[in-house]
Each structure stands twice: as structure tokens, then as C-alpha cells.
Amino acid sequence: MQLTNLIKKLASFEPDGFPFISLYLNTEKNEHGRETFQVWLKKELSARQKAYSDNPFEGEKFEKAAARIQDYLENEEHTAAHGVAIFTSLGDESFFEAVQLKVAFPENFFFSFDRPHIFPVARAISQNPKYAVLWADTNKADIYVFGGENRIRSDNEANDRVENIQNRFTNRTQVGGWSQARFQRHIDNFHLQHAKETVAELEEIVREKDIEYLILCGDEATIMPILRPQLSKALEEKVIGALHLSQYDSTDEIHEKTREVLGIERATRNKAQVDRVRGAANAAAGLGTLGVKATLQALSGGQVQELVISSDFDAIKYAPNEVSEILNNYAPGDDQSSLDTMPIVEFPGEVADELIIRAINSDAKIIFIEDESLLKDVGGVGAILRFNMSAGANG
What is the pLDDT of residues 195-210, one digit of tens each? Predict the structure, then answer.
């Protein structure tokens, strides 16, 4: 199940009066090669159990949920996972969902709301985009795919070497019986054919796996002048950088180095996206919003094309009474929500989730902005609109 489908399932969970547990764990190993989340989780579960001392009925339900969580972590945790998220209800004991991700959550979180808390897992999708890396020289090539939103199912799912392209060894030394010029033309034609075959494989992988970004690696003096002219316009537009990497670099080393390139590109795009939102919001056409209130209203009316939201949860600020007013103005079923019950506006987590849910339900693109300063002055939220209701009404 893709994470977007899981989020939709979580978003459709109707509160039943019992607490719903959303657990996020950073399962990365420390500098000594040990996981540290177990100690934190043991203390957290113990403290939560004590909180039910005045309610034995719910306390018994929590004890069962805690045991199931521990059993999952002991028997199902994957060694490749850097982040684990678990969702379970104290009321509906059959509801238990767990995901293991290659990308880590920034820290451990335990949430107990009346509904699932989806903000961290939605943010994980945004921060772990799928991208391809092509490493090539004049007679072989490797294509890697990193990232993406699927659950981990095998050790190499999140960073597969998906294709290896290798031709017979060639060099530029003279061969007996051939003139130097004739041999050179032969080698150059061979290298060109290799580049075309490599790009053909790359085109297919990018299309099949819906790749968003592409990074090229190899010798800039030998292969890149032959390879890059073979890229289609669509493929060239996905290129965000080129690195000079050795064929002896490991998959992990390639992943680490290319993530740095990806981070720089995403920071640049984030700034441009926020500038677009601000420009649209301030333009006469009014095809943009700034702030939680205006954006929630636009989401409820199905107007939003792109939601931009701070990845720093603490940067999302709003006035609860204004949010309540917007929610009360839209009837359930006509407001892009998944439930008949409204979120508790005093809980920032539920309001942030509601923004994301309504964006998903109206097919709006969600963009998490990692530099909190870019949206801090407007409460951490903004949007680009498909249409302006006021402009339509006046026209």
C-alpha cells in the first residue's frame, strides 16, 4: 500500500470516543550501532498506562494496544527501516496499521488524539521524493532509483540498482591492421551507440517509475559530452545536477552524495514556490492565499491547486475561533473532509491534518516547505488556487 493510500484510510477513520494512537519512531542506529528508541518507548508506554489508573476499562484496552505494538516491533521490524509509524485504535481493536520507511522521522512522537495524526507521515512523503541516478562511462552504465513513498518490503527497495548496462571493453589504443582514424571512428560510434542504449533504458525507467528528479554521474570529459545530447527535452528538464563519481563508489555513497544535490535543488524550489504563492495572493486576480484561515476556506471549496505548508509543525499558527468559523460554514460532505465530525481546533495537530486531508481529497498538490522562515509570518500555510470564487461571482 502506498503511503498516500494509507493516509486516505487513516483520514476516513471516524472518531468513536476512544483515543487513537499514532506512534512515530526514529529507528536509526546511533554511533555505537545501537537503536535507542526502545528505551524511550518503554518509558512512554509506562507513563501513558499510569494515566489510565482512573479508567480501568480504557486502561485494559491501552494495555492490549501496547502489547501489540511491542510484539510488532520485536517480530516485524525490518533492519533497513530508519523510521517506523504505527496507528491503532483503543476502540476499534481491529484497526492496526504499521509502515516501515527508509527515511527517518526526526524524532520519536506519541500522539493520542480522537483520530489518527497524519502530518509526520505526509511530511515523510514530501521529504523523500523518488529520483534516479545515472552513473555511466564509455562502455557501461548503472541506473539507481532512490526514495519514493512505498513501504519497505526488502533490504534494497528504497535504493535499488534497477538496471546495469554494460558493453564490451573499448579503449583508444591502435589495433593492428586498422588505421588510427578508422579505429577511432569505430570507437566513437560504439560509444555513441552505448549512450543511446543507456538513455533508452533511462527513459523507460523514468516513465515507469514516475521519476521526478534525475542526477547524472560520470566523467565529465569523456561520457557526458556524448550522453547529454541524447537526452530528450523531457528528460533533460528533470536533470538537477551532475557529479563526477567513481565506479567504485558504493550504493550508499552514491545515495548520500546525490541526496546533497537533491537537498540544494529542493531548497531552491521551495523558495520559488513560496514566492509564487505570495505573488498570487497579492495579485489582483486573487489566485493565492496566505494563512490557515484563508487556505482552509479555499480547500473546503475545492479551489486549491497547490498547498504549501511548513514542515516545522510549530510554525503553523492560527486563531482557533477563526478556524471554527470556517469549519462551521461548510457542511460535511461538501467541504473536502473525510468525516462527519470536525477536528478539535484547540489541537494544532488536528488542524494541520485537516489541511492535508482536504488537499488530498481535492487532488491538490502538497508541498512541505523545509525553511520555516519562508512562511513564518503567515502562519506557515499558503496556497495557489485553481480559481477565485469572488472573481467568478463578480464576472
Answer: 899 999 999 999 998 8
